[in-house]
């Protein structure tokens, strides 16, 4: 028996000794942000982000013996996410500029390219100088092309877009006259938009590099060493050649033909379906939280209004304090854009929370709860004072009056406004892509990065949004009818 105990003890001791060696053998993970709607540098192929930047990062990771993890997010938020410590670096076709170097460090460049000008084939623009004739120029927000175009042609003549496909749509519909874009990305879009062309003279020659946090000089040094080795071995040149020579199919003719080829035949519908699932999940959980929180806020604020001013007990003081806090909360939420609230949650308040869906749920729930609170307060105040006094005269307590008389009528009276808030919340989740959550709108962007057909992808997403909104409207109409007959 003693020998068995000794054997077990020896086994456990060996496991304890070996555990540290096992953990050290596991690869270190480095997190990089990218914007997977910029082919051929980064885009989706199935569920995987592929392209020049992802392949180079993987090659660097293999050289360094580390695992590289990519996070898809809006281009304009990558540097902010690096600064907040959310990610270690960013690879999204970054041009090195003095302004950006104030915020992040950059590796040695790994690719040379140029910014070119895209125009319609029937345009009167023939060279760069023609853009000075009060032409409206489209750019991607936050890019070097955006910055220089505003300096060269004036901010009033530049329209900055969050997504390149949005700029392509505006050019095709004559809302802008030209687009400044990376040459390789421009060539991909032109393959699918045969009515567009690139003028012969480049707007700008540039070099791409990888952005690294200023707090991690060791990572910068190791990555520069890896880039140098990959250049010498010819690995980076092979990656560039692999993607620069890719071709895409021509535009399908006709609305149905384009829908069939873009959404059905390419299997792109799954991105819209997966995005819809995430959108509905975020909406559902945010709605539950905002409903409960909004109701609590409304009851506290109403309790403070109806409270006897002479009350000095602990409960009275607590309600007054909570009323002040909730009032300030509502003012802040209603006074700031929901996009800013989401980005603050992502980059500041919940910076250590890696679950993007949870970040979105919390942000949208807090935003909606402020409006829910005022909505419920309106419903409570719609119940006449006489009914409340009648209930009290029948011997009902304040709690019983609120539960049995006020709240049933308040909910009934609030149903139309509640339906509007649910629809608003559902549509507002479309900004979740700013933090990289693959919602329905982000799903449409992924489709565009693969097919380069922005119109079909956006119309498909819009149809899905409209369909869900019509279903929500139908549900609330039935609820209102039920309340009327009740």
Automatic annotation (TrEMBL):
Residues 276-476 form the ABC transmembrane type-1 domain. GO terms for biological process: amino acid transport. It comes from the Bacteria. It holds the Pfam family SBP_bac_3. GO terms for cellular component: ATP-binding cassette (ABC) transporter complex. The chain crosses the membrane at residues 278-300, 342-366, 455-472. CDD domains: TM_PBP2. Belongs to the binding-protein-dependent transport system permease family. HisMQ subfamily. This is ABC transporter permease subunit. It comes from Anaerococcus nagyae.
